Amino acid sequence: xxxxxxxxxxxxxxxxxxxxxxKSQSLATTMPSAASYLSALSQADARARSHHHPHVRSPSxxxxxxxxxSLTASSDETAFNEDDDxxxxxxxxxxxxxxxxxxxxxxxxxxxxxxxxYRLTSAHVAGTEVPAHVEHDPPYYILFSTYISYLIxxxxxxxxxxxxxxxxxxxYTHLIPKDGYAPLNSDFDSFYTRRLKTRxxxxxxxxxTGVAGRTIVLLDRASPDYNHTQYFTGNRTRALxxxxxxxxxxxxxxxGCADAVEESIKRYGISTCGTRLAGGTSDLHSIxxxxxxxxxxxxxxxxxxxxxxxxxxxxxxxVGKGCLVISDELNHASIRFGVRLxxxxxxxxxxxxxxxxxxxxREVISQGQxxxxxxxxxxxxxxxxxxxxxxxxxxxxxxxxxxKKYKFYLFVDEAHSIGALGxxxxxxxxxxxxxxxxxxxxxxxxxxxxxxxxxxxxGNKQLIDRMRLHGHAGAYAESMTPAVLTQVIASMASIMxxxxxxxxxxxxxxxxxxxxxxxxxxxxxxxxxxPVPPTALPSWLTLPxxxxxxxxxxxxxxxxxxxxxxxxxxxxxxxxxxYGHPSSPIVPLLLFNPGKMNMxxxxxxxxxxxxxxxxxxxxxxxxxxSRVRFxxxxxxxxxxxxxxxxxxxxxxxILDLKHGVKKSERWGVDEICExxxxxxxx
Amino acid sequence: xxxxxxxxEPALEFLARTLTTAEAAFNKLPGSAVIQxxxxxxxxxxxxxxxxxxxxxxxxxxxxLQSRTRADKNYISFSDKEVDELVDEWTPEPLGQALSPxxxxxxAAVPVISGPNGPRPKIASTGKTAVNLASFNxxxxxGSEEIKExxxxxxxxxxxxxxxxxxxxxxxDVHMQLERDIADFLGTEASILYSQGFSTISSVIPAFCKxxxxxxxxxxxxxxxxxxxxxxxxTVRWFDHNDLKSLEEVLESVEKERKKRRGPLTRRFIVxxxxxxxxxxxxxxxxxxxxxxxxxxxxxxxxxISFGTVGRTGRGLTELYNVPASKVDMLVGSVAxxxxxxxxFCAGSQxxxxxxxxxxxxxxxxxxxxxxxxxxxxxxxxxLRNTPSILATLHENIQVTHAILDRVDCISIPSHPASPIIxxxxxxxxxxxxxxxxxxxxVSNKPSNPTSILxxxxxxxxxxxxxxxxxxxxxxxxxxxxxxxxTKARRLRGQEMVEARPSIRLALTSALTKKETEKAxxxxxxxxxxxxxxxx
Lengths: 682, 536
Ligand SMILES: Cc1ncc(COP(=O)(O)O)c(C=O)c1O
What we know:
Chain B: This is serine C-palmitoyltransferase. The complex is a heterodimer of chains A (682) and B (536). Chain A has 682 residues and is an alpha/beta fold. Chain A has 22 helices and 15 strands. In chain A, the strands form 3 sheets. Chain A has a 7-stranded mixed β-sheet, with helices on both faces. Chain A has a 4-stranded mixed β-sheet with strand order 1-2-3-13, covered by helices on one side. In chain A, a hairpin with a 5-residue loop joins strand 1 and strand 2 (215-222). By secondary structure, chain B is of the alpha/beta class. Helix content of chain B is 48%, strand content 11%. Chain B has helices spanning 2-28, 32-40, 47-66, 68-72, 80-89, 101-108, 145-158, 166-170, 173-186, 197-208, 223-232, 244-261, 285-295, 317-320, 335-339, 350-359, 361-364, 371-386, 388-405, 465-481, 514-535; strands at residues 112-114, 122-123, 131-132, 190-194, 214-218, 235-239, 268-273, 298-302, 330-334, 344-348, 411-412, 421-426, 484-485, 487-488, 504-507. In chain B, helix 10 (197-208) runs parallel beside helix 11 (223-232) and helix 19 packs parallel to helix 21 (514-535). In chain B, 47% of the residues are buried. The chains are: A alpha/beta (682), B alpha/beta (536). Chains A and B meet through helix 4, helix 5, strand 1, helix 6 and strand 4 of A and helix 1, helix 2, helix 3, helix 5 and helix 6 of B. Strand 4 (281-282) of chain A pairs parallel with strand 1 of chain B, so a sheet runs across the interface. The structure holds pyridoxal-5'-phosphate (PLP). Pyridoxal-5'-phosphate sits between chains A (306-308, 311, 332, 334, 384, 388, 413, 415-416, 445, 447, 455) and B (365-367).
């Protein structure tokens, strides 16, 4: 982990000097709009920067780019005149921007943060151990009271059922056989839902509106009858959103990606009308797939309209009877779904435990198939890059070692890690500096880092072509819609940055027009993990300069890396028990007692600056390790993470959650906020 | 607190140590991880059950330990060196075989549309436009400017992705609105949205049907239903394709079986489709509903093709037959096909819907659909409600198509006259009819075996799949050369429970006028006659 100071303000649009003078004059005089105001500011900003750091060449400065249409007239207004009042401290930045800083985002969607110190690079330090998944145990009284709580809950539940069935039989009609119909849900099967989950219902399925960006607007609910019913109060609360899988902050209603999506809706309409194999393939699919393949560094890729279905419909095309799937015990439901459909045998190994994996491999290879002892046709190891409930990162270097020796095929589900990890955002392989092509199949979803929907599967061309024909999705599932494809293409391209055409005639300098001319010469120019040749994008797609240059993308990656480590290490320093890899944007904080979940959730939401959190409990986690799971985003500012840390600090004291380190080793929250850069770098 | 914890420390420590030892011992047992996993994720998420299963498991382990010799019979113990040798020797098959030339041709034949899809899209390979009878654009919503405008408006408020599953801040007001719109449109209490149409029913079925439950399903159900049934692990009985008499027989035999075994009352479901994706046949809904009530089964009806296409305003079979939708227990439909957006839904009672919010796998474990697609679907419903003429045009186009194709004698059409998809089979020279309508064939009176999905006449099927596929592809190519885009029905050969007969699948649309449809279908007719005529 190294923190390189970033001289440029992240969202500032910068330009080389030879364009600056001419353009600033013409724009300022001919376009009295907010866009021209912006550009003037940006130039002032760029000038100031080059003045202050004459020796540092900003990596984001690229020739021949200029202000584009990324900001529409209406977005300027929202960007500058936030209409919410700021009592919750969420609408306006804690530190107002100076005249030299220009932000092209809406602060409530994507936080303004120009401080170059709050940046890190997400990469594995060569030669260090990959931290194993350690489960800190809390003091015994916590474990004990947790078990007791569940025991009480279960007993109480049974007592209530017993009494209820006798005195209020009408409330149980749907649970007992009636008119010759077995109940849809027997009372035994639904016990957990009725008696335990209902108590927590206020934490789940909270309806929201608007963008799930840095902040989110909740539609307030209340329950008159202990969560049996809930109604809307009609009020709305804006809250700091540390729960959505918006790792790179691409959940935005404004900006270059949204502009591109709007253009695509106008050009392509809403749907591509049908399945991929039968009349629902659009040229955008081909472009998107080629881009994804480049992004992940594979030969070819296939896009599917749902992330869950990517696993559940393509795994059966990879393995079948006589094959063995070795699966991490904490793998996602979609993987288990796909494996079950495939008909292959399954064996599990202990979560991210390489010893357990190796001994299992030795056993299954030497024993062969059950009963017959025939050798397995193939063995497929399925792991996730980043586990969504634990925050653990797969020990990829060790897996690759084992792969060499045991010759299994490797499938990595990068749903959470793609975009979120690695110096170039290309996932776990990038993080560990491993050649992606040494992995057989990379799968991932667009719902998280890219602010879109759907998923992809990437591998060599032969394999992917096979999936196109034999995966269930190709023949039967609807294809991805143009709007979603465009969001994927635009956000991915802005992470990669565009390779500049060798020579651009100066006449076309006002906007970056990406034409598909001389595509053949450009095609070969991609070298992983480099910028993408502009010809790989649809010809009508224009990205604003900050996105096209990759400056914005790189900034987002570095902000995310900083925020992740800062929150993770900050919570550790405060004394909490957390799980997972310090670089993971998923930070679980252990609560243990089921009663504390509700409390934690409520207390976070009721603060002056409301914060929404995700609490997860059994059955998503083991019974005792109930937890709250934070998902940090590049959209969060350092002050936002401070806010979360301060809230956790206070609530942690009240709820007795600090069991990670001894009191004497804990840090105060003020000190943590002050020494954020140091803490994140630890 | 501290004092209690110190006094209790030794006792607790002992307890913990015993636990750890026990756990370690347990972990050493072969296969314990699987069992552990199974217990944790056993399909019923219930601690009581887990405990019960744990007890069972301990019992099982005891039995296993007692009969160690027998359990070990299959386990060969090797020395480390032997294992190493075995590992060295083992060579896996390649992960994916190369595609055969035929498969490559199939892949190459997939039409790519350049620019927007609609009634006359531009085909990327030729650069020319073609009249589209292949894509699902039944009610022509894909071209609606109104919907596009609304979508852009929503984009500017909500962004694109929802960035979370419905349980964790992914439920948007627009999703709830669409759920309400669908429920109102159909006349059910509630509905639930899934983010992919294809994955909907594969999740709905296992949400309700568990091990030990009974599913009685049509032999012709689509692939997604087959997968849902496979996941559910329920007991399945099959009835003849679209034959309600066979259904009754099967239901009776199931009941007889249960009485004989004196088994407990379990959940029982009939699973079938409104309009079958496989061949466009349509189920007789009123009769089906009668049967279901008579035998006390719940009905899971997949209206993925019929929702948005059948009935005066596109409400589906319930509208066509004037049956209240509330009589269908789980009515599954596709927002993607019917409303030209994406996703699927399951409509039903509040209880049915709420149950899925916790147990519908692809609902719980997947991000909710993008806001703008949800609103596009809501707008689609509005348009269908307010403009019945759209459906009238579609139905007219279907009639016209049948009128033309019915007179071609080298083909047969299994599809119902109201189905928006029309399948075209090659009429075989020997047995000249579709199997389900084969009156000339000597069909044995013995009912087919309900435990097997294979129809009783499967042995007499005499079509040769590769040859027919090839002929049909020639028809498709010929039609495209004449400016009409049609497609073969795409199948997953080798993965389906029953191999479907090769067919060309026309998808009609109200975006074409009657005249245009007539002209395009005539082109298809000529292509059929030309290619199939050559055969003889
Ligand atoms: C590991 C993994 N795979 C797949 C998915 C499913 O992705 P989607 O939400 O896009 O359907 C998820 C999402 O939660 C996931 O965590």
